[in-house]
């Protein structure tokens, strides 16, 4: 799966789960200030991402540094690559 496919699937999650308009889904959009997520949404977002991509997202320094949609896209793509290479957490069943 390439980065464009990952970004597209993340956008679909934001559109369907959080009702964010596609024109607001810009890489520099701040998850809280621009896209309107709150702390409960973050928990739901993590669950949706784990289900969509079959990965386990753990609390880490990199995860805590995520502020924008672009940060999130880069993080998820890197986690997918790690799991496919066998370097990251095992994929969820």
- Helical percentage: 40-55%
Q: What's the pLDDT, averaged over the residues?
A: 92
CATH-defined architecture: Orthogonal Bundle
CATH superfamily: ACP-like
Biggest β-sheet description: none
Shape: globular
Please count the helical segments: 4
User: Stretches where pLDDT falls below 50 for ≥5 residues?
Assistant: none
Straight-line N-to-C gap: 18 Å
Query: Which class best fits the helix and strand makeup?
Result: mainly alpha
SSE topology string: HHHH
Strand content: under 5%
CATH topology: Non-ribosomal Peptide Synthetase Peptidyl Carrier Protein, Chain A
Radius of gyration: 12 Å
Number of domains: 1
CATH class: Mainly Alpha
The count of strands amounts to: 0
At a glance:
With 93 residues, the protein is mainly α.
């Amino acid at each position: 799966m390439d980065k464009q496919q990952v970004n597209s699937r993340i956008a679909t999650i934001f559109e369907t789960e959080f009702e964010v308009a596609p024109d607001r889904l810009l890489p520099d959009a701040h998850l809280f200030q621009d896209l309107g997520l709150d702390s409960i949404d973050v928990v739901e977002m993590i669950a949706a991402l784990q289900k969509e991509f079959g990965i386990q997202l753990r609390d880490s320094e990199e995860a805590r540094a995520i502020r924008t949609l672009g940060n999130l896209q880069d993080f998820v793509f890197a986690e997918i690559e790690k799991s496919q290479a066998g370097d990251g957490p095992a994929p969820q069943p």
